[in-house]
Design a protein that fits this description.
By secondary structure, this protein is α+β, with helices and mostly antiparallel strands. The protein contains nine helices and four strands; from the N terminus they run ααβββαβαααααα.
Length: about 180
């Protein structure tokens, strides 16, 4: 073949040269919320970290927000749900609510009751609670005074940001 009939492999498509494409290929969670991408052949838009199979670069477009993608006629992916908070954010909110139940309960609730209120199985609640807080629900329940300063120092900050209301974060032991 002559040089004029061979496709140029060096340059790639415009999408392949875009730094956002690298985030999609690497499924980089750091870019979630920064942009979404849509696939023309499926009519779906996804988060950069979506575990679905990668589309061909020539079928991909980038959008700053989910609303922009929807305005162009794309629907949200059913796998990564880019129109909803991320799984990490949903887990943090769920665990913040479970911590509030511990704080307000007169008697320590059992894991089964907590799981039912959270809409999770007891096993899954235990795993998610430990992943978010770094401690088990039993250890959290056994903590004598979760609103003490020493507890706040040792307890992971992720739980504080989970229940943020405006600019005031929710802390275990707080009444609002």
């Amino acid at each position: 073949m002559t040089a004029t009939t061979e496709p140029l492999q060096i340059a790639g498509t415009a999408v392949e040269r875009d730094s956002r494409w690298r985030a999609v290929v690497e499924r980089d969670r750091a870019f979630n919320g920064v942009f979404v991408y849509s696939v023309a052949t499926t009519g779906v838009y996804c988060r950069p970290s979506c575990p679905s199979r990668h589309a061909r670069p020539e079928n991909v477009r980038f959008h700053p927000t989910s609303n922009d993608a929807e305005r162009e006629g794309f629907r949200p992916c059913k796998r990564c749900r880019p129109d909803q908070p991320s799984l990490t954010e949903r887990h943090a909110e769920t665990i913040a609510a479970v911590c509030r139940v511990f704080e307000t309960a007169e008697n320590i609730p059992c894991l089964t009751d907590l799981a039912r209120q959270a809409g999770l199985s007891p096993y899954h609640l235990h795993r998610v609670f430990k992943a978010v807080t770094g401690i088990t629900p039993k250890v959290y329940a056994a903590t004598p005074n979760p609103s003490s300063a020493s507890f706040r120092i040792t307890f992971p900050a992720r739980i504080w940001s989970a229940g943020t209301k405006g600019s005031k974060p929710w802390l275990p032991g707080s009444s609002d």
